[in-house]
Amino acid sequence: MRYLQENNGLKVRAITGTRSILLAFDADRDTRNSLRGFSIRRTEYLEKSGGETVTSMKWLQSSKVFRTVEPKPKEMVNGRLKIFRTDKHPIQKFFWSDYGAEPSTDYQYEIFPAYGPVTNLQLDQHRMIALKIRTEDEDDGKHGIWFNRGAIASQHYAREFGNVPPTEDEVLDLNNFKTRWLSRGLLEACLAYIKAAKKEEWLHACFYEFTYQPIIDAFDDALKRGVNVRIIYHATKANTKAIGTRLSGTDVLMRRTRPTVPHNKFIVHSSKSGKPLAVWTGSTNITMSGFLGQSNLGHLFRDPALAERYKKYWDLLSQNLSGAPVKKETKIISPQPREVVEPGSLTPIFCARDDLAMLFWYGNRIVDARDLAMFTVAFTVSPLLIPALAQKRDCLRLLMMESRPPAELIRAFHKDGRDPMLVTSYGAVLGKKKITITLPNRKRSTRIIDVKKYALGEWFWREEYTRQRGKVFFIHTKYLMIDPLSDDPLICTGSANFSANSLQNNDENMVLIRGDIRVADIYLTEFLRLHEHFYFRDVANGQAGNGKDAEGAFLEEVKDWTADNFLQGTYLNARREMFFRNAPSSWGEQAENRDPNESAAMAQQHALEGKRKAAEKRRISKKG
User: Fold this and answer.
1) pLDDT greater than 80 at residue 441
2) Domain ranges of the chain
3) What is the mean pLDDT of the chain?
4) Where does the record place the region Disordered (predicted)?
5) pLDDT beyond 70 at 231
6) Model pTM above 0.90
7) Looking at the chain, which terminus has fewer C-beta neighbours within 10 angstroms, N or C?
8) Is 623 exposed, middle or buried (0-12, 13-18, 19+ CB in 10 A)?
9) pLDDT of 100-119, one tens digit each?
C-alpha cells in the first residue's frame, strides 16, 4: 500500500500501515514561496451491512496553532477543550502521520497548500492532491501484526484520561475504553489466537513473564475445552503466584529454572495430530505493562515450516537444559545464516548460542543499508554495533531507545563530529526529565522531576507516568529494519535485545524476514509513530527554560518555516528526501559482495582477541 502523486510542484507519498498512515511531502521553490503549511481533509469510507457505503469527511486536527489567531489554545470554552483543524492551522512539516486510522479501511486524503494571511488562509485548489488509499489488514493469512499504543505519556492520554493510571479493575476489564485504547488490538489479537485453538489441538507456549490474568484465563479456558496446553514459564514467585490454581493437570506447566533470563514469549499452535500450523511471537511479555504500557508488538506467522522449527526449539527448552547442550542444539535448529538470506524467506534465530556471530551479522546489515536503517533498543547499544551505526555515510540511521543515551554512547557516536544522518530518540516526557542521585547509603537511584519554568505547560497538557516501577517503561520492542522503503526490505524481529548477553546466555527467538513489503510498511509506520512522538518531546525539553520554549507551541508566522527542510546536511532535509529518492543499490547487493561466512569469521576473530587480552592481563598480574 504505497502511493505517489504529483501536481504542479507538489509531491505526496503515502505509506499505509494497519492503524497509521504516513504522508510525506515535497515541493518545488514556487510552491514553497509564502507557503503557510498543508491543510489536510480526510474522507473515510465505511461499508455497512447490505453493501451500503457511507462516508465521513473532516479536516484533520492540528497540534499547533497561529498565535495571532489563538494566543491561548489550551483555554477552555464552556467547559470544553478547543479543537483546531488544519484548514485554519495547517501542518508546517514535510512529514506527517494519521494515527487515527482503522485497519482494512478505505480513505481519501486531500492535501492543500495554504497561503495568504493567517487570519484568512487560502487553500490552493490548483495544487491540491487527492489520494485514495487503503490501510493494511491486521492479519492477511500469512502475517498478523499488532502494535500496542506504547505512548501512555501522550497528549491524548493526558487530555482524555486526566493522567489517572488505569485501575486494577480497568486493566482486567477487556471492554474498558482505557484498556482497549492502550492495547490498540494487541491484547485482543493474542486472546483470539489462543481462543482459536480447538479441542484436541495443541498450544505450546514459552514465557518469561506470565502474570496477566486475562491471558492466563484464556489458556485455562482452552485447557477446559479440551485443547492440549503446554507452557514453559520462568520459575519466579510472581509467575507462580499469578497462575495460582489454574492450568492444573499433568504436564501442563513446566518450570524453566536453568538460565537467569529465559526471555522467550512465543506460542505454537498445532493440529490434533501435532503438526505445527502457526506461531505467535514478538516482544510482548504476558503482563499488564506488556500489553498496556511499554511499546510492544505481537507477530503471528501462519507458516507451518517456521512453526515446526519453533516447536523443535520448544521441545529442547522443555528439557530445562542450559549451557553447552542448548547452544549446540540451537545452532542445529537455527544455523548461523549466511550474509544474504533468501528473498521471501523466514529465518529463525534461537538462543542461547555459542558465539556472537549474529551481532556481527546485524552490524553488517546496518552497514549494507543503502537508504535507511531503523533500530529499537530497550536498554543500550552493544559495543559491537556502535561502529556500524556510527559510520558516517549518506544513509539515514534512526535509533529509538528507552532512556537518554549514556555519555559514553554519545561520545562514540560523535567521535568524528555530529552526524545528522544518525538520529536518536528516547522515552522523553514533556516537561519532565530523569536525574540520577546518590542516596545516603551510596546507592544510586533514578528520579523523575519537573522541568522548572516550563512554558510549554501553558499550551500542552502535562504528561505523567502511569507506572512508576520497572526498568523499561517506553521502548520494549526489539526489531531492526534495513532499507524498509525499498522493494527488498529486511526486518529482524523477536524477543532478543541485540546484545551479547541476549545471544549467549538468554533463551531468545528472532525471525529474519526478507522482501515482504507489507510487513515493512506496517513496521515502518509504527516505528516513525513513536520516533516522532519522543523526538519532539526531547527537543522541546532541551529548549525549555524561562519561557524561551513557548514559541514551540505555535506555528511560524514570519520566518520561512520550510527553509530548514531543504538545508543540505540536516536531519530534516534527509528525512524529506528519503521518501522521494532512489537508493543507489540495495542492501542485498552490498551483502552479496561479502564472504558468505564473514559474520562467523568476525565473531571467531573477536573471541580470539578476547582470549589474547585476557591472557595478557593474567601475565601482567602474575608479573606484578
Assistant:
1) no
2) 2-135, 139-320
3) 91
4) 586-624
5) yes
6) yes
7) C
8) exposed
9) 899 999 999 999 999 999 99
The DSSP symbol for 179 reads H
User: Residue 184 corresponds to which cell in the numbers above?
Assistant: 490498540
Residue 400 burial (10 A CB sphere; 0-12, 13-18, 19+): buried
Residue 138 has a pLDDT of 97
Q: Which of 216, 209, 255 is nearest to 232 (CA)?
A: 255
> Which CATH code is given to the segment(s) 139-320?
3.30.870.10
Give the per-residue pLDDT at 350: 98
CATH homologous superfamily of 2-135: Immunoglobulins (2.60.40.10)
Cell representation of residue 224? 477446559
**Which residue, 112, 113, 126, is CA-closest to 34?**
113
| 372-377 and 396-401 strand pairing | parallel
Q: Which residues contact 227 (CB under 8 A, 6 or more apart)?
A: 197, 198, 199, 200, 201, 202, 203
72-76, 144-148, 614-618: which is most confident: 144-148
Determine the Cα–Cα distance for residues 16 and 468; give it in Å rounded to an integer: 34
What single DSSP character describes residue 190?
H
How much is the average pLDDT of 151-167? 81
Counts of helices then strands in the chain (DSSP H, E): 18, 25
443: which residues sit within 8 A by CB, 6+ positions away? none
Over 133-166, what HEC string results?
Answer: EECCCCECCCEEEEECCCCCCCHHHHHHHCCCCC
Q: Per the omega criterion (within 30 degrees of 0), is the bond before 352 cis?
A: yes
pLDDT digit string, tens, across residues 186-216: 999 999 999 999 999 999 999 999 999 999 9
Residue type at 533? H
Contact 8, 29 (CB under 8 A): no
User: Residues 477, 296: contact at Cβ < 8 Å?
Assistant: yes
Q: Which of 577, 555, 573, 554 is nearest to 563 (CA)?
A: 573
